Amino acid sequence: MDIGDLDVDRLAGELDARLAAADAALAALFPGDASGRQPVHTVYVPADRYPAGLCRDWGERALGALAEHDGLFRELVGDDDIVRRVRAKLAAEPIEDLRIDFEDGYGARGDEAEDGDAAAAAAALAASIRGGTAPPFRGIRIKSFEAATRRRGLRTLAGFAGALARAAGTLDGLVVTLPKVTSVDQVEAMVYTCERLEAALGLPAPRFEIQVETPQSILGPDGSALIARMVHAAGGRCSALHYGTYDYSASCGIAAQYQSMAHPAADHAKLVMQAAAAGTGVRLSDGSTNILPVGDASSVRAGWQLHLRLVRRSLEHGYYQGWDLHPAQLPTRYAATFAFYRDGLGQAGERLRDYLTAAGSAVLDEPATARALADFLLRAVQCGAATEAEVVAATGLTGPGLADLARPRR
After folding, report:
1. SS3 content of the chain, % helix, strand, coil (to 5)
2. Quick one: average pLDDT of 49-64?
3. pTM of this prediction?
4. Residue among 240, 95, 230, 227 at smallest CA distance from 175
């Protein structure tokens, strides 16, 4: 094609050559969103309190809380269908993602005690894997790579991974949470540790999560968003960024009574995390609330109301995962999650169908919004809030077609 003296085809070839390196870098650094299911929560349990039957036990305790406060829960949720779905979920799969904690929830107990607990926890996890009772996602949180705790964190990781590999024959699906990250160097050190683990065990090392608990991980000394550099320094081994509500808030000087997932400082940190992770395949998790729904009916009401509101808020802000710290938080985790997707299911299905069929509509959606609609529906199916049949009926898209539209890869 020629326009006067401009040969467009030749110019396009020249631009291809000029931009080849940039094209390759974009594809490598921003390959697109991760495929597959994302858990809706992560449960943290101190390592010395983790038996092989923990998931079943938490499910029974969560159902017990519902039985004790049945009328209150129904009042707060206001939807018998959601209540039914929550009960079924707690009976079938109460915990989606488990983190066996050797950090703040465990404390400093000395080498002998932590070595023993690491071996025992690995044996318990292996037993649950063999018995088919392990949660679909699982891992450990080690102590940080700051100087004071670095050796202990490494020792626990090596001991746990080695014991699990011997007992289960695999490390598949295991994730390591690296807390209190303050520098890109610590992320690079974790990558190096994974490489050494692979060489020592002859197995692929676990992927790891960066826990954002320090202002240094959000804003570097040069004013840059350090978390973005951390994501790319991980070389594809980082699976997620997890926000740490209380460590981050305390580090920012926020008084204890105002520390919350909904504080403006938390929102700022999470917005930076969200932008840093976009398009990289690294997922996001919000933090926790330490106001538990336990005690008398008034305390349970306050705890459940708060948790319902905070989980819904996280979902609306694009954080599809969060932490749970007690069995009585599981009912409200699933109730808020199921309600979020059920509330939007009809509109999302209608808008996506109109987009795909080019039907006239009062909403003029663009391709990026169509991907967001597809992702919403895909997550609804993956978390159990909707069935694939419902989505097919609403949009005409089957599972593979929905996933291809929701999460395209470069």
Report:
1. 60, 10, 30
2. 96
3. 0.94
4. 240
